[in-house]
Fold each of these.
Amino acid sequence: MSGRVLRIAERESPGGANPLGGCYGIGTMDRERTRIFAMFCISPVVRFGAPTLLALGLAGCAAAPSSSEAPSPPSVDSGDASSETSSADQASKAPLLPSALFPGEAERFVGWQCEPDQSLVTAHGEDTLRLWSAHGAYRLDPAVVASGARYQQGDLSFWSKGSEATVESQYGRLKCQQNMRHRALTRESHPGVMFQARGNEPGWMIELANDKPRISMSLDYGERQVNLPYQVKALDNDAGRVVLTSGQAARPFELRIEAGACFDDMSGQPWPARVTLEVNDEVYRGCGQGIAP
């Protein structure tokens, strides 16, 4: 029997065709030998036929995808995404920040230590006084007074004489002593910046561009420099509050700005905004100021 099989395997079928599609590397020559060989090796072909065998073969083997299969969706190229983000960033404009974050026409911020225990910040303009406390920001108009300078808004009044001041409201009276003053930041000294904030331990600083929604961060004493687009999560003009988040999901951060008396914890300088920056699971706290043109 084995001799006959070898002789069959050594001969090709007419025209070199192989009815088994080359699956076993053997062929047949005539009908008689086809019956003999099929009965010995692949009798299922006689019952099911070649098309059925082909179908079973595709089902049982890992075949390459056919050209009729739907192509896989293209992967997102980070370079293209960056270009699109950059284009959108250039087309957008920076938001208008609440006026309570700015000194107005004032050239200086003045810090006051008051009794009972409270700290205030003021900025004197030509026609108004801006006042910041732990509870928010206020704008007072000039009022008639025999001596010194007095400003009032409703039942809130601020009356200063030299380095001393009296603040009255429906909640009571404060006796205040001026303890520090410094010049407000200007666009001339900080071109292209509409808001700046800084803090200590570790030293950090952020700046918001005045023409588009981008933030520059200098973190950990300047060891890390970050420049990102941002989006406005919340903005309340009346409360003087702004919350900004990252414009890039892969580099998240949150910046909270709130109008209120703030004092640098090392120098004691007074500022009109309290600032909290959260990035990379770290929290930075400090003070800031809006910078008008």
Amino acid sequence: MGELFYNKSWVVEGITDLPFTWCSSNKDNYDNTCERTCENPNDCVIPDPADPERCLCPENHMVLGDSCIPQSNVAVTFKGRRRISRSESYINSDCSLRITCNSNVLTSESYSCSADATCEERNDVRRCYCNEWFEGDGLTCTRSGPIDCSDLYAANRTNNGAYTIYPAGSSGFEVIVKCLVVVGQ
């Protein structure tokens, strides 16, 4: 629940209707502070002097929806030295949460990898990546092979042995085959 605040300087004898301002949960009235945004997380946005008291996040906090969260918990501010820009997303370490910056506000939503994907970082981008022989965005992955021994050979699986293949048109039906690699043929 939010809190009510008022500036004691507004109290004038005989006036009963004081200008109260409602601040949502985790925000408060701050006279001399700044607010951090996704767009410029290291720069303070100084309050307008014409509006000397308004609801702001406390120092070292950033806006998340209508609440404030500690800046140390907002990994989207910087990743190393790389700034997460507007409309870009940050995926947390276990790929369970996506944080996106839109219109200078951080929004979060649940995020989950496909059963056929792995949560990992590649080229400085953490997200769900489809496993080998699967294609997709990591949230949804569909099998893409191998359909025969030649697919295995093309993927540098050049050892003789038993392999699982997924023949074209098999609707997920898998077959264990023995592939014999003959070099020079």
Amino acid sequence: MMPKIMDNRIMKTKKAWALFSGLGYALIAASAMEVARAKPKITDPINVASFAIAGIGICILIYTLVILSTNNNKDSIITAGIYKVVRHPLYLSGITFGVGLVFLSLSTSSLSRLIEAVLGMLCLFFASRTEDNYNIEKFGNVYEAYMRKVPALNFLKGLKGF
């Protein structure tokens, strides 16, 4: 049985993790809805690049969800598929999508969309750090070894070590 102090610390970490990730995704979704209402010109080169970056974020999300759906053991660290390259592919997908929104915001001169997307990405970054703390509490040295081997969000660095 887990000591009461450890249990309380894990619960606080889970609450912070839920707050950061929920707020991050909500801000990015709000920014995406505003971008959709603005109807940016698809033919502008910066918008083409923006949609491509956002599309990469969506592809990362779909691939990650496929990997998660095949994981039957919820009490172990997932190290298969994209989790061999980055520890937090769901946050990476949201941040990548957010980068696409930032460029769309710049092309449509919308400060509110820009602020929402940047704040959303920051929240997802902090969610990844909070999740690391939670996983250290839950899995201990095994997760710390995984952290040393696999980067949190840097996909290119993860591919180099792959």
